[in-house]
Design brief:
The chain is mainly α. It contains five helices and four strands. The longest helix has 24 residues. The model has no long low-confidence stretch (mean pLDDT 91). InterPro entries: CblAdoTrfase-like (IPR016030), CblAdoTrfase-like_sf (IPR036451), PduO-typ (IPR029499). It is found in: Cytoplasm.
Length: 190
């Protein structure tokens, strides 16, 4: 259980922060940038939820929780030392990826195939979900970059890859199952 009885600690005033294993690193490190962008993704999901209801809102709530799990996973380097940790280390699981795939498949069954690229927009919810998609893609790029330099749970990369696809399909659902998608017209303004 997390207990936050004091919000500011002053320990980061010199530009460093603590990772989940206690190591101190620069706040601009690749790892902090990666899990910080996961946190940013979570904030965009919160904005999208202002316009969501029912099943889609419930799924977004699960994604928000997953994104906290992902941040906890990413802030804890040295996967090979997990067994030595004083308490269980939280890592992303294949079940979380599988759940997204099942939900993507269900959404795909509800929409017509695309004949053009979709422009971000349509309904307010769809526009917010497109923002979630692009921020999660940036998080994915940062995590992939981090994984080329340091140890990263490969499931974290898979989750982010599926997540952006999930946001895309959810944006189509939010646009009346794709009927209100705004389609790209190549060269329309030449």
């Amino acid at each position: 259980m997390v207990v936050l009885n004091k919000i500011y600690t002053k320990s980061g005033d010199a530009g460093e922060t603590a990772l989940g294993n206690g190591d101190r690193v620069a706040k601009h490190s690749q790892r902090v940038d990666a899990y910080g962008t996961v946190d940013e993704t979570n904030a965009t999901v919160g904005l999208a939820r202002l316009h969501a209801s029912g099943e889609l809102d419930a799924q977004l709530a699960m994604i928000q929780n997953d994104l906290f799990d992902l941040g906890a996973d990413l802030c804890r380097p040295d996967m090979d030392k997990d067994a030595d940790a004083a308490y269980p280390v939280l890592r992303m699981s294949g079940a979380q990826v599988s759940r997204l795939e099942i939900e993507i498949d269900a959404m795909t069954a509800r929409v017509d195939p695309l004949r053009s690229f979709v422009l971000p927009g349509g309904s307010a919810l769809a526009a917010h979900l497109h923002l979630c998609r692009t921020v999660s893609r940036r998080a994915e790029r940062l995590v992939v970059g981090l994984s080329s330099a340091e140890s990263v749970n490969p499931v974290a990369v898979k989750y982010l890859n599926r997540l952006s696809d999930w946001f895309f399909q959810a944006s189509r659902i939010a646009n009346a199952n794709g009927k209100n998608d705004v389609l790209w017209v190549p060269g329309a303004n030449r």
